[in-house]
Amino acid sequence: MTTASTSRIDRQLSSSPRSQAERAALMADPGFGRVHTDHMVAIRWTVDQGWHDARLTAYQPLQLDPAAMVLHYGQAIFEGLKAYRQPDGGVAVFRPEENAARFNRSAHRLAMPELPHELFLAAVDELVAADHAWVPTAEGQSLYLRPFMIATEAQVGMRPAFEYLFLLIAFPVTPFFPGEVKPVTVWLSDEYVRAAVGGTGEAKCAGNYAGSLLAQRQAAEQGCDQVVWLDAVERRWVEEMGGMNLFFVLDGGKRLLTPALTGTLLPGVVRDSLLTLAPSLGLTVEQGRISKDDWRKGCEDGSIGEVFACGTAAVIAPVGHAKSATGNWSVGDGSAGPVTMRLRAALLDLQYGRAADPYGWLRPVQPAS
């Protein structure tokens, strides 16, 4: 097998990009994932050629053989990251190197080929440069980037595929919380589990999300916004909220606790960023375990003052109320707490370039010439 050693991506610009007026109308209320930019990046992999045929092209439908292995055995992984408009009008992508690394960890777990980091970053740079004008300037908006890879070989024998397609698409998004940040209500699921040790919990693969939909529907039936996952063995230890990591604010707002990575949790990029950022705000951080009973008792005796979830889409989402089959409780007074909002503001200020970036997390991208 040969592997492409270059990160060069051929540019084939769209012959019919949206006009400035059309783009402005679409970006006035883009929602999430409804409005796509003019271009995408596609890179192919085969067992004989490795990575090849890297190109930026017009956004367009795919053509798949009905026997494409992704449709039968679910070899599909993805990532999520964002590009932010900066105060000087420039654009920067937040921590794409971390997404490149996690993408490859997911690929390894699903027996898929790993994409060289420089090729992942080149794809991000190329698409953001080509669709620079699609990065919103409105307050709180951003450009969401969705890299993903699927098995395209047309055969239904049960084995890893010999052909894959990497794609990168992008779409402008509105804030998760337009206006006032509103705490969410969560349902602790003790009937369904997301992942077990040795499974695919730490991989960002499509099957994990398909398997979560029934529990999410159950949460909605209980009047909740999101489902909280417990461990697969004891159904006792708190793991994630939907596709987001959870944090608990303890000791009168002085300490943060987040469930440790055990192989069943997704290692979130925002989670990692908060673990780095929090000490600079005077907070101590800990990765450990917390049970659903500890959560409830902590809220009742006041030792847990705030709870929030974090992820690329929402950044930080405060949790105001929790429900379970054995009882319901509130977190503090049910509102977004001061530590939660302070961390949220600090991270957003860094992402949008309103504060210094001492960690080198922002990757500037110039518009295509």
Summarize the structure.
This protein has 9 helices and 18 strands. The chain has helices spanning 20-27, 70-73, 96-109, 117-130, 206-210, 213-221, 269-277, 292-301, 338-351; strands at 10-11, 39-46, 50-58, 76-78, 81-85, 91-94, 142-151, 163-173, 184-189, 226-230, 238-241, 244-250, 255-259, 284-288, 304-311, 315-324, 327-330, 362-365.
Structural class: alpha+beta
The helix/strand series, from N terminus to C terminus, equals EHEEHEEEHHEEEHHEEEEHEHEEEHE
Helix fraction, binned, reads 10-25%
Strand content: 25-35%
Question: How large is the radius of gyration?
Answer: 21 Å
Briefly, what CATH class of the largest domain?
Answer: Alpha Beta
CATH superfamily of the largest domain: D-amino Acid Aminotransferase, subunit A, domain 2
Total strand segments: 18
What does this entry look like structurally?
This protein has helices spanning 20-27, 70-73, 96-109, 117-130, 206-210, 213-221, 269-277, 292-301, 338-351; strands spanning 10-11, 39-46, 50-58, 76-78, 81-85, 91-94, 142-151, 163-173, 184-189, 226-230, 238-241, 244-250, 255-259, 284-288, 304-311, 315-324, 327-330, 362-365. The protein is of the alpha+beta class and 369 residues long. It folds into two domains: 10-173, D-amino Acid Aminotransferase, Chain A, domain 1; 184-351, D-amino Acid Aminotransferase, subunit A, domain 2 (D-amino Acid Aminotransferase, Chain A, domain 2, Alpha-Beta Barrel). The strands form two sheets. Strands 1, 2, 3, 4, 5, 6, 7, 8 and 18 form a nine-stranded mixed beta sheet that branches. It has a six-stranded mixed barrel with strand order 9-10-11-12-15-16, surrounded by four helices. A hairpin with a 3-residue loop joins strand 15 (304-311) and strand 16.
